[in-house]
Amino acid sequence: MYKKFYELNEKPFNMVPNPAYLYRSEKHQDALTYLEYGLMEATGFILLTGEIGIGKTTLVRYILNQIEPDVDVAVIFNTNITSDQLISLILENFKITPKKDKTANLDLLYQFLIQRFSDGSRVLLIIDEAQNLHVDVLEEVRMLSNLQSDEEILLQIMLVGQPELKARLQDPRLAQLAQRIVVNYHLSTLTREETGEYIEYRLKKAGGSPDIFLPESVDLIYTTSGGIPRIINMLCDTAMVYGFGYELKQIDSTVIDRVIEDKGGIGFYVEPEQNKDENKIGILSEREGEGANGELLQRFQRFEANLQDIRLKINLLVKKQATKNEYNQDGYHDEMVSTLQGLFDQEREHSEKLMKEYAILDERFKRLSVKHLEMIKKEDVQERPALPSPENEDLKKQNVKQKIWGWLIRRFDPRP
């Protein structure tokens, strides 16, 4: 209902995963690189994890749109199943009628894989929401990887799920499965800067102005959403409905504040327990505004994590450039790793030095914060400014707006 008012071609913050609206942040681009490498090399298992609403399904659908025609793909979304049901679902996805006997179904699947291999094609199985799979079913998934020829993997498997999936794979009973995961990427939340870019990207993609949301409103959206795209979409979509009702061409923090209040906290970001524990021991949350010391430590940890994946990226680049014969692959590979290792060591040394300096500043900041809180307690809390009400130009216009507000109240007011 607000598309015409904001001059949009379509709704920019639809809740349905749409690969055409994939915002390729640095972390999303890294995920695509790893997944592309895994698919190109036909590795055994690929693991993609991330928080609820982070965009895993959108990323998978984007990848599916890029897959070559010689790859047969089966996607399993229903994961509350037994091992017998899993085999049947896989066969149905490949348009093969399953039988009642599990052994017969495994034979059907193996014959299908052999046929596709002889045709020069590859087969990919994607299991979404894999954190819901029982240990026995995950072990069955691992057994499927044994369907292979002497030299080639006949069935490539991608597991997609929430962070609990990584914890599940630490179960000793799944040690063999965990050891077969060649490509592993965890998709993390957006930063404040990326949140602003994400909102602007989707608005421009829908044909509208990227400046509808003022910076102050983006700040509040980021704090409330925790940088999770699905929550950002929910907040922005509802805010644009409110903005349309109030005839606001730009949306400020007052509108977002009203959306948050009316939603009653349902569906908003809740900080994971492990993150809360980390904050207690010094990894400070940007959301709580506790300073540059935490930011430096997070930056340092990202370098630690990224270094172990550098070789994987280089392998992909080398493979893409190999046909050009512009350099010696082994020499280039070793030189690049050595250079990156040197840069990492420099960054590590620099970060440690800065962290010591900021530790002093952080302690001063905490002391000032305590004094500031004591001062705030002594002041009266100012009442939140009310949203502007529509002007009553004439009786006809007033009636139209009353109808709009009546519809909005019935549609969005959660109170009885």
Task: Give the structure's gist in a few sentences.
The protein has 416 residues and is of the alpha/beta class.
Notable characteristics:
5-stranded parallel sheet, globular, 15 helices, 5 strands, 3 domains, Rossmann fold, about 425 residues
Explain the overall architecture.
56% of the residues lie in helices and 7% in strands. α5 links the parallel β3 and β4. The chain is an alpha/beta fold and 416 residues long. It folds into three domains: 26-187, P-loop containing nucleotide triphosphate hydrolases (Rossmann fold, 3-Layer(aba) Sandwich); 192-270 and 386-412, no CATH class; 273-377.
Structural class based on helices, strands and sheet pairing: alpha/beta
Report the radius of gyration as a whole number of Å: 26 Å
Number of domains: 3
Q: From N to C, what is the helix and strand string?
A: HEHEHHEHEHHEHHHHHHHH
CATH-defined architecture of the largest domain: 3-Layer(aba) Sandwich
Please give the order of strands in the largest beta sheet: 2-3-4-1-5
Helix content: 55-70%
- Using the coordinates shown, work out and report the CATH topology of the largest domain: Rossmann fold
Low-confidence stretches: 274-298, 323-329
- Provide the β-strand percentage band: 5-15%
Termini, distance in Å?
24 Å
Calculate the mean pLDDT score and round it.
Answer: 77
Total helical segments: 15
CATH class of the largest domain, anyone? Alpha Beta
Strand tally: 5
- Inertia-based shape: globular
